[in-house]
């Protein structure tokens, strides 16, 4: 868990040109705080302490404006910039080294108790107010535009014909 937090702080430093020192990122960045608390709640949730995990999730949303279900799986080195209004649903997966901006929703398209949330690959950037709905896959190195509504799978960016991967992580 501590290693993940270190990677999240490094990701904030890398992707936010206005980022101050690492200590301030750790203490004051809502995205880093929400991810740190989520990782703890996720462990509790997986050990069967679901109500306690949901309470931590609720308190985190109240403090940061970021709503992450404790069952959601989130990779290493993730950066949630600004964060207000970010929603990550129960069966969502966020890969390693992803960047999510404010207002992003990884939501469901059904009320049934099934796998119903998006799966983001590694190195995905989702810009402000984008909404990704349903059990779809967003491939590695993909970029989701601001205000986009995505309801179908997106292939990995590096595999699109004639277009190289946009970065290495």
From TrEMBL:
Belongs to the transferase hexapeptide repeat family. It is an enzyme of class 2 (transferase). Its EC number is 2.3.1.30. This is Serine acetyltransferase. GO terms for biological process: cysteine biosynthetic process from serine. The chain crosses the membrane at residues 17-35. Pathway: Amino-acid biosynthesis; L-cysteine biosynthesis; L-cysteine from L-serine: step 1/2. The keyword Cell membrane does not apply. GO terms for molecular function: serine O-acetyltransferase activity. It catalyses: L-serine + acetyl-CoA = O-acetyl-L-serine + CoA. It comes from Peloplasma aerotolerans.
């Amino acid at each position: 868990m501590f290693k993940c937090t270190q990677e999240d702080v490094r990701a904030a430093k890398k992707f936010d040109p206005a980022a101050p020192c690492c200590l301030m990122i750790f203490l004051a960045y809502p995205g880093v705080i929400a991810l740190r608390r989520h990782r703890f709640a996720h462990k509790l949730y997986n050990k069967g302490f679901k109500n306690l995990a949901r309470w931590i999730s609720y308190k985190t949303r109240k403090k940061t404006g970021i709503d992450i279900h404790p069952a959601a799986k989130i990779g290493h080195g993730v950066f949630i910039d600004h964060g207000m209004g970010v929603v990550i649903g129960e069966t969502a997966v966020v890969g390693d080294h992803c960047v999510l901006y404010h207002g992003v929703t990884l939501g469901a398209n059904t009320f049934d108790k099934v796998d119903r949330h998006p799966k983001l690959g590694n190195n995905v950037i989702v810009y402000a107010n984008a909404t990704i709905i349903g059990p779809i896959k967003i491939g590695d190195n993909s970029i989701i535009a601001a205000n986009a509504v995505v309801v179908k799978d997106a292939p990995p960016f590096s595999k699109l014909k004639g277009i190289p991967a946009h970065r290495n992580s």
